[in-house]
TrEMBL record:
InterPro entries recorded: MFS, MFS_trans_sf
Keyword Transmembrane helix: yes
Entry GO MF terms: transmembrane transporter activity
Transmembrane feature ranges: 172-191, 198-218, 224-250, 262-287, 307-326, 385-405, 417-435, 447-466, 472-496, 517-535, 541-567
SUPFAM superfamilies named among the record's database cross-references: MFS general substrate transporter
Biased segments, Low complexity type: 53-74
Keywords: Membrane, Signal, Transmembrane, Transmembrane helix
Renumbered residue ranges of the record's region Disordered: 39-89
Protein name (Swiss-Prot/TrEMBL): Major facilitator superfamily (MFS) profile domain-containing protein
Signal sequence annotation: 1-23
Keyword Transmembrane part of the UniProt annotation: yes
Organism: Chaetoceros debilis
C-alpha cells in the first residue's frame, strides 16, 4: 500500500509549485521575448531625431486610418501597432510601466539576462493580466469539479446530513451524475453561439458568479433535492468555460500564441485538479482525525464534506478579481486611444460610427452557426469530433480514480484522492513542456507523437484489465505510476489538436461554437459512461472490468481518428 506522510506530501506540493512556475515561464515568455526585442528597437528609433522626423507623416496617416476601427487596434500589441500618438498613449496603460521597470533593472544590473522576469516586465499588461485571469479561471473551475469525487463516499454515508427521502444514496447519486453530464451536453449545444456573440470575457464573469452561488448552496443545504439541482447547474455552467476561454484567447492573442495559451489552460486545469485533491484530502483527513480524538465521533452527522464545497465556492473570487483588473486596463487603453484619435480624425458619418462599434457587438449567432455548418462538410471536422469525444471519457475517468484505487488496491480515502492528484500531475507535466513543440511539428512528427502517447494510454488500460481479470497482479505502487502515465498520455491529443482547429477555422465569429460542437458528442457519451460506472457495485473488483473495456475501445478509436484528422487537415 502506498503511504503518504507529511514529507511526501510536502515534496509533491513542491513539485506541483515548481512545475506551475515553469509552466508559466514556458507558456508566457517565448512569445514575449521577441516582442521585447521589437519594442526596445522601436523605442530606440523614437529617440533618434532623424528617423523620428522622417516618420511623422506616416504616423499621422496611420492615426487617421486606425481611428475607424477601434476594436481591432485595441487588441493589437504595441509591437504590432504603428507607433502613432494613440499607440504611445495606450502603451502607458498596457506595457509602458513594464518597459520602464525593465530599463531600470537593466541599468542597475548591467547586461545581465533577466530571462523570465524581463519578459513579464515588457509584456503588454492587457495580455499578461488576461493570461493570469485565464489560468485562475480554469484552475478554480477544475478545482471545484474535484469537490464531488473527493467527498463521494462521505456524501453517500448515513452521516452526511442530507435527506435522501428514504431512497438508496448510491442510486440517487448515479442519476444525478447522468443528468448533470447531460446538462453539460445541453450547455455545449446552446451556449457556443451565445459566447461568440457576447464575448468570452463577459461570459466567463457571468459563469464564475453563478458557479460560486451554486457551490455555496450545495455547502449549506440539507436537502438532497437542492444538492442535486445545484450540482446539475454547476455542470451546466461548467460547459461554457472551455469555449469561453478559447474565445477570449482569440480576442487577445495572435495565432502564434494560441498553442501556448491553450497549454496554459490545460496546465491550470490539471494544477487545479492536483492541488484540489491534495487540499481536500488533507482537510478531510484533519477533520476525521479530530472526530476520532473527540466526542464528535458520536455525532449524528458528519459535515466535513461541506467545508470542501465552501472552499470551492470562495475559490471563484480570484478569477473574478483578475477579470476586473483586466477590464479596467482594457477600458483605460481604449479611452486613451479614443482621446488621442479625436485630435486627428472625427468619426462623423453613420457608416463610420457603425464601423467603430466593436465587431463582438455586431455579429449574430446565425453567423456562428453558418460557419459551423460549412466546417461540417469536411472529414477533418468529424475526425476531430470523434477523437475528442472518445478522449473526453478517458480524461473524465479522473472522477472515478479515487473510488477505483480504494476498492481495487485497498487504499484509504485520502491516499486514493492523492493518487487522483498524481493523475492530474502527469497531464500537467506533458502539457507544460510539450504543448507548443507539438503544435509546431510537421505532419509526420505529429502522427508519431500521437501513436506514442495514445499507444501508452492503451497499454495502461490493458494492464488494469489484466489486473481486474486476475491475469496479472499490479502492486499499489505500480497502479499509482500507471495512473500518472495515464494522465501523461491523453493530454496533448485531447487539448491541442481540436482546440487549434476551432481557433483557426472558427475565428472570432465561431471558435466557441466549433469547440462546443466537438464537446457535445463527448459529453453525451460521458453521461452514459458516468451513470454506467456509478451504478455498478464498485466495491466488487470485477465490476471495473467492463468500464476498462470501454476505455480501451475509446482509446483505440481516438488513435485512429486523430491520425486521419491530422492527415486530412494538412
Amino acid at each position: 500500500m502506498v503511504m503518504f506522510n507529511r514529507r511526501s506530501i510536502t515534496l509533491l506540493f513542491s513539485l506541483v509549485a515548481m512545475t506551475s512556475l515553469e509552466a508559466t515561464s514556458s507558456l508566457i515568455s517565448p512569445t514575449v521575448t521577441s516582442g521585447v526585442t521589437r519594442t526596445f528597437r522601436q523605442n530606440q528609433t523614437l529617440r533618434s531625431p532623424e528617423i523620428g522626423s522622417s516618420s511623422s507623416n506616416s504616423n499621422s496617416n496611420s492615426n487617421n486610418n486606425s481611428s475607424i476601427n477601434l476594436h481591432s487596434n485595441s487588441f493589437k500589441s504595441d509591437e504590432e501597432t504603428p507607433l502613432s500618438n494613440s499607440a504611445l498613449g495606450a502603451s502607458r496603460y498596457s506595457g509602458g510601466g513594464g518597459k520602464r521597470l525593465y530599463n531600470t533593472l537593466r541599468a542597475r544590473g548591467g547586461d545581465m539576462n533577466l530571462g523570465f522576469f524581463s519578459a513579464i516586465a515588457n509584456m503588454d499588461r492587457e495580455k499578461l493580466v488576461m493570461a493570469v485571469a485565464l489560468f485562475a479561471t480554469y484552475f478554480s473551475v477544475m478545482g471545484a469539479k474535484c469537490a464531488l469525487p473527493s467527498t463521494f463516499n462521505l456524501i453517500m454515508s448515513a452521516q452526511s446530513g442530507l435527506n435522501f427521502y428514504g431512497q438508496e444514496p448510491q442510486q440517487l447519486i448515479a442519476k444525478v451524475l447522468v443528468i448533470s453530464t447531460g446538462a453539460i451536453s445541453l450547455g455545449k449545444f446552446l451556449l457556443g453561439p451565445v459566447i461568440d456573440k457576447y464575448g468570452g470575457v463577459f461570459c466567463l464573469k457571468v459563469a464564475l458568479s453563478l458557479l460560486m452561488g451554486c457551490l455555496a448552496m450545495i455547502a449549506s443545504t440539507s436537502s438532497f433535492g437542492v444538492f442535486a439541482v445545484s450540482w446539475i447547474m454547476v455542470d451546466f455552467i461548467f460547459s461554457s468555460c472551455w469555449a469561453a476561454c478559447l474565445n477570449a484567447i482569440h480576442q487577445t492573442y495572435q495565432e502564434e500564441e494560441w498553442a501556448s495559451r491553450i497549454g496554459l489552460l490545460a496546465v491550470a486545469g490539471r494544477v487545479g485538479n492536483a492541488l484540489s485533491f491534495f487540499a481536500f484530502a488533507s482537510v478531510l483527513q484533519i477533520v476525521q482525525a479530530q472526530r476520532q480524538s473527540s466526542s464528535i465521533v458520536a455525532a449524528a452527522t458528519d459535515g466535513s464534506w461541506r467545508v470542501v464545497f465552501w472552499v470551492s465556492s470562495l475559490l471563484q473570487l480570484f478569477p473574478l478579481f483578475t477579470f476586473g483588473i483586466y477590464q479596467r486596463i482594457k477600458d483605460a487603453k481604449v479611452v486613451c486611444s479614443i482621446n488621442n484619435n479625436n485630435h486627428q480624425h472625427a468619426v462623423g458619418s453613420k457608416e463610420e460610427k457603425i464601423a467603430a462599434i466593436p465587431s463582438q457587438q455586431r455579429r449574430t449567432m446565425k453567423d456562428s452557426l453558418k460557419i459551423l455548418g460549412g466546417e461540417a462538410k469536411y472529414l477533418s471536422f468529424w475526425m476531430h469530433l470523434i477523437s475528442r469525444s472518445c478522449l473526453m471519457i478517458v480524461a473524465s475517468f479522473l472522477l472515478f480514480v479515487p473510488s477505483y484505487m480504494a476498492n481495487a488496491f485497498g487504499m484509504s480515502s485520502s491516499e486514493s484522492a492523492r493518487v487522483g492528484s498524481l493523475y492530474a500531475l502527469g497531464s500537467l507535466l506533458v502539457v507544460t513542456f510539450f504543448a507548443k513543440p507539438y503544435s509546431m511539428m510537421n505532419v509526420n512528427k505529429k502522427i508519431i507523437s500521437t501513436v506514442v502517447l495514445l499507444g501508452s494510454l492503451l497499454g495502461c488500460s490493458l494492464l488494469h484489465m489484466a489486473h481486474i481479470a486476475g491475469v496479472y497482479t499490479i502492486s499499489s505502487l505500480g497502479a499509482t505510476v500507471s495512473m500518472f502515465l495515464w494522465g501523461v498520455s491523453f493530454s496533448i491529443p485531447f487539448y491541442i489538436p481540436p482546440s487549434m482547429y476551432a481557433l483557426k477555422r472558427g475565428g472570432s465569429e465561431s471558435s466557441a461554437t466549433i469547440a462546443d460542437a466537438f464537446d457535445f458528442g463527448g459529453f453525451m457519451m460521458l453521461a452514459w459512461f458516468n451513470g454506467f460506472v456509478a451504478g455498478r457495485q464498485q466495491e466488487v473488483l470485477m465490476s471495473w472490468f467492463a468500464p476498462f473495456c470501454a476505455l480501451t475501445i475509446f482509446s483505440a478509436v481516438s488513435l485512429v481518428t486523430l491520425i486521419i484528422a491530422t492527415l486530412t487537415e494538412s
